[in-house]
Amino acid sequence: MTRILSGIKPTGQLTLGNYIGALKRFKDFQDSGEVFIFIADLHALTLPIDPEVLKENSRDIAAFYLASGLDPKKATIFLQSSVSAHAELNAILQNYLYMGELRRMTQFKDKSAKMNDNQIGLGLFAYPVLMASDILLYDANIVPVGEDQIQHVEITRDLVNRFNHRYGDILVMPKAQVNKVGARIMSLSDPTKKMSKSDPKGDIFLKDDMKTIRKKIMSAVTDLGCEVKYDPENKPGISNLLTIYAALSDISISEAEERFVGFRYGDFKKAVADKVEEILGPFKARYEEILASGEYLEVLKEGAKKAEEIANVTLKRVQKAVGLLPIE
Ligand code: AQP
Description:
Layout: E1 3-8, H1 16-29, E2 34-39, H2 41-44, H3 51-67, E3 75-79, H4 85-93, H5 99-103, H6 106-112, H7 122-125, H8 127-137, E4 142-145, H9 150-167, E5 175-178, H10 210-218, H11 236-249, H12 253-259, H13 265-293, H14 296-322
Parallel strand pairs: 1-2, 2-3, 4-5
Helix pairs in contact: 3-13, 4-8, 4-14, 8-9, 10-13, 11-12, 11-13
The structure holds adenosine-5'-tetraphosphate.
């Protein structure tokens, strides 16, 4: 059976980008394979974060996972930090990725751009090693990601080739799977930049109330001209709103374009706001209920047990392959 693994790091409040690029897709996977969805809390430590904020963000993600329709009977939902094999595999695999490769990672370059060497933690630099460990522990075949994370799956593939070449067929080769529509939702205030939870300018937060969300959409930056047309180069604002509409409607961009022929920008934005409200309204209500009930805690406990069993099998296989002496 195909193994599918994905996660979100609790670095900030989740955005509409996280919903479209990740959350929205998860429930479809649970019927087509064996699904592992985790909260990447160790990854959230790679940049400074307040402990209380980290806890709150992690709880939120757990509740958002359940609100997205993930069924804990079908999907294994867990916290990365609750399965110690992630850190243990990381300690081994860090020897099979090299400084030059890690230095070339776009995420590292972006996030460290305004920092000097005395501010950049080793964890930020070595982020792809931990991400490779997350993926490889579960023998994942498919890793659904937004566009920005493709490079990290690619470096994981390089690692698998290198490791298996040396030790035999030990690690399973994963593949990134990217959304056809909505792999990169852009900021509403600067549509040339990705909507990102750690750089919250022009973000729609899933925790925003509906009135705020509508207001943000109605004041989204648009472009010169008056035609609702997909042209990311010349009309990045309108193209982004079209992408949001198409992704939430499960239609192609060209179908979305057809729906808005002859629309003024204002009416088009209103239609986008209506669509966002139609989808996020019930989703947010489910999230509130789940958060209040606290049911996510039991789900995370059970998930950790299930994840640990599988992860430990892979860890043992790797330990044995590299020559760590087994004592059991
Ligand atoms: N703007 C986006 N459009 C489409 N997909 C997105 N994702 C994130 N932003 C967008 C996808 O959401 C998943 C979880 O992301 P992550 O938490 O692992 O890290 P990220 O990709 O770095 O997302 P952020 O929001 O930009 O986080 P920060 O600011 O902490 O770096 C991934 O599948 C991601 O592609």
